[in-house]
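Bumping my old thread because nobody answered last time. Still need a sequence for this structure:
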């Protein structure tokens, strides 16, 4: 009986939660429209600024993000991307592979809270060998998720393959997130296309780097997974690689073999 009451209470709570969501989604657009007709433009701009930078606005955005069905293997490691961006304060981020936008939204939330920076989200949003089954043509879904979280201003969505974007790319990149073509040839190509654009202390981040440590026999298509092999090659030749064995593996890589020197050459000679 107690268990039944618990289940009933859970169902009631879920129904109330859903009804609240429906009411908020119905009322908020009408309230925004009414305010836009009543309040003068300078006051509206001030209210938008307060909303964007206030802790309550940021908290709301994070809560909303956790409720979006991104259907992504990135999982809680999206918070790692968020934290790195909040710390680095990058001007330019580029991600290869957006799908429904979990990585996109968490990077963009950090950029919005930083008050600076742009994410270029590269994905053809068409069927490839590496789509999740429910995430093929995800362009409209990505745009909707960005709009829901009020992040459209932080993201330039590039509906192209990475090699098409690379042909005309010239800007320094502070953070490069590679999560597109997972074949060995594909991930190697994405690294080689953009690593030369990384800023001196820029960082490349690869997803799905520990698949070989935890193979899944129920996903035969992943036998062609080449990300672990390629990142291991980078590690063996001396690129600094830091790997976190969660959410299929997240590896951070610096662009310089041996790492970025942390002392000036003149200082090293003086104290040798």
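Sorry it took so long. Here it is:
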């Amino acid at each position: 009986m107690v268990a039944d009451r618990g289940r009933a209470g859970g169902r009631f709570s879920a129904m109330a939660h859903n009804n609240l969501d429906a009411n908020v989604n119905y009322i908020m657009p009408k309230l925004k429209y009414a305010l836009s007709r009543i309040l003068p433009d300078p006051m509206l701009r001030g209210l938008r600024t307060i909303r964007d930078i206030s802790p309550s606005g940021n908290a709301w955005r994070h809560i909303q993000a956790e409720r979006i069905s991104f259907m992504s293997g990135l999982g809680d490691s999206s918070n790692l991307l968020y934290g790195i961006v909040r710390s680095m304060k990058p001007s330019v981020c580029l991600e290869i592979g957006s799908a429904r936008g979990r990585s996109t939204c968490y990077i963009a939330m950090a950029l919005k809270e930083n008050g600076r920076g742009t994410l270029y989200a590269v994905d053809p949003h068409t069927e490839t060998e590496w789509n999740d089954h429910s995430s093929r043509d995800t362009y409209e879904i990505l745009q909707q998720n960005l709009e829901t979280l009020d992040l459209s201003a932080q993201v330039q969505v590039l509906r192209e393959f990475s090699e098409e974007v690379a042909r005309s790319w010239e800007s320094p990149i502070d953070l490069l997130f590679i999560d597109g073509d997972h074949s060995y040839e594909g991930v190697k190509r994405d690294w080689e296309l953009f690593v030369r654009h990384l800023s001196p202390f820029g960082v490349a981040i690869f997803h799905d780097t520990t698949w070989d440590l935890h193979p899944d026999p129920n996903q035969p298509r992943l036998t062609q997974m080449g990300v672990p092999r390629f990142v291991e090659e980078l590690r063996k030749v001396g690129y600094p690689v830091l790997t976190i064995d969660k959410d299929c593996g997240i590896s951070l890589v610096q662009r310089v073999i041996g790492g970025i020197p942390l002392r000036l050459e003149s200082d090293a000679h003086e104290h040798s």
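The mean pLDDT is 84. Let me know if any region looks off to you.
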